[in-house]
Specification:
The protein is an all-beta fold. The protein has no helices and ten strands. The chain has a four-stranded antiparallel sheet with strand order 1-10-3-6, with no helix packed on it. A four-stranded antiparallel sheet has the order 2-9-4-5, with no helix packed on it. Strands 7-8 form a two-stranded antiparallel sheet.
């Protein structure tokens, strides 16, 4: 039996600006599951540095993404984030009060 690797990033929404800032350290494993919790009073945008759309997390909102199999192809598991991903966060409208918390498992 094996356990998930775990990573946690926390960002104080009072420090949000209009530019992306690092949210925690680099995640050093491929991420299978992630929970993004915005326990603040303002919306935020989170990027993984890819060309995909940013995650928009509303004030007091949560996004959960779980692992998934590529159906019928036999090519294995899809990852939410690749190994060595640096998540970054910025304000949607303004700085706020409260924390933005990301828990990643892989």
């Amino acid at each position: 039996m094996s356990k998930y690797n775990r990573w946690k990033g926390v960002f104080d929404s009072a420090s949000l600006t209009g530019s992306f800032q690092n949210l925690g350290t680099v995640i050093d494993f491929p991420v299978l599951k992630v929970a993004i919790m915005n326990a603040s009073d303002v919306a935020c945008l989170i990027t993984d540095g890819s060309s995909e759309d940013d995650f928009e997390i509303p004030a007091n909102g949560t996004v959960n993404i779980g692992e998934g199999e590529i159906s019928g192809t036999g090519t294995g598991t899809k990852f939410v984030f690749d190994k060595s991903t640096q998540l970054q966060v910025k304000q949607k409208t303004a700085a706020g009060t409260g924390n933005i918390i990301v828990m990643a498992f892989g």
